[in-house]
Amino acid sequence: MLRPVRSKDPRNHLLWGALAEPPSATAPAVLGGARRLSYAELAAAAAHGAAEIDERFPPGSRVLIVAYDQMAVALALLASLYSRCVPLLVDAQPGSGLDRIVHNWRVAGALGDRDLSIGVRETIATEAILAWVGPRPPAPHEPPAVHADDPALWTFTSGTTGDPRAVVHAHRGPRAAYEAFGRGILALKPGDRTIATAGLPFVYALGNNLLFPLLAGAAAILPGDLRLPTVLHELRRHEASVLVSGPWSLEAIARLGDRPSWGAALRHLRLVLSAGEPLAESVFERWRSTFGQRPLDNLGCTEMFNSFLAADLAAARPGSLGGVVPGFEVRVGGAAPAPHRRGALSVRGESRAIGISSDGLEGRIEPIGEAWCETGDEVEIDGEGRFVYLGRLDDRFKVRGQFVRPAEVERRLLRLPGVRECMVVGDVDERDLARVMVRVVVDPAWQTDDVFRRIREEIRSAIPAAARTVRLEAAETLPRNARGKLTRARGR
How far apart are CA 423 and CA 441, in angstroms? Predict the structure, then answer.
């Protein structure tokens, strides 16, 4: 691992060793559609883009990056990191609070789709970003000199139960996460080609499908959009070896993967990642039996940039997050991990962000010290020392005096025949008393009444106190955000 130097130096920049002094200047770095950029071409495009950004915006300006085309997002981010401005990565989704972000954090401009950057004074359009690639006069490829703890970029939490919060990452953060997870767990290497079903504003995809491959000398596949048929087409076209995904997308891909060309490409993968929400046993088993893959469930958070709990591939099993990724330290309920312990999860490590927005302090970023990061998750450690995910602490609710943990109940319900997707939330009855609501996407091959009967029986076994106060609803789809995560705040 390259040790950061104390003074300002280009070697502290998170792109050092990726675009500056890469393993091979001619090897493919990013792929998408008919586009194929080598490391040298990507570095040149980033340098040219940085020059345009610095010409358009004053030093230190905050600039939004918001586009559907993932190649454009990548080019805009890398150029911004080379520039004197600070990039803010946001989801490309209309009505996702961009006006609030622009106002609260005094954004100077945007890079990406004009129809998504409403309220921003000036935008460098997606077409202009993609035009940074091509024959131009030489530009310096070396990134600017920085301290390892200098701010590099902002991302935003997923906001599944409330408004997203801004998170500031230092240059050392993504590099430390790569050493721990990208190199230590995934063993990324030159020749690997990654692809993701989620967009780059999601740090899980940003790390595993852009920064980590570049730091490893591998290649990232960046589709023009994130519709699953597009992703599968690109996966097959560019012969991906690593798929970065989540349970909802993996379940849908398993249904789409019966097309011979896609199925063959999926069986070619050496590694399948799943994060964002618990991986159902049925999805795990379907992937293992259909494509010969054991999806690797893992858990991280935006504040830590990437995952800190994961199993190694040989030990991957449904319902288990494995153990602590080397390089991180965790606590459960404020104590060291031990079999059969359950409680709130906290973590610390070198990849931790350096700032985060604070509740009640509109538009302000509060610095983060050396304290433990409270993730907001609840976990349990089984008898073999493996971590089991119980859910978000702010998701749980009480019915008849007993805590109901939605993720724990959902994991049981998803094992039932006929349950394709489900979401458990708190509800009240006509007397304003607490009850359990379950929204279910029923497999069309099953009768809804039969599936509902099985669900009631399972809930009676799982949470007896709540068994008489359950409301079931059939749904065609469940509410999800741009990152594919269930949005429980809007599911109630």
Answer: 9
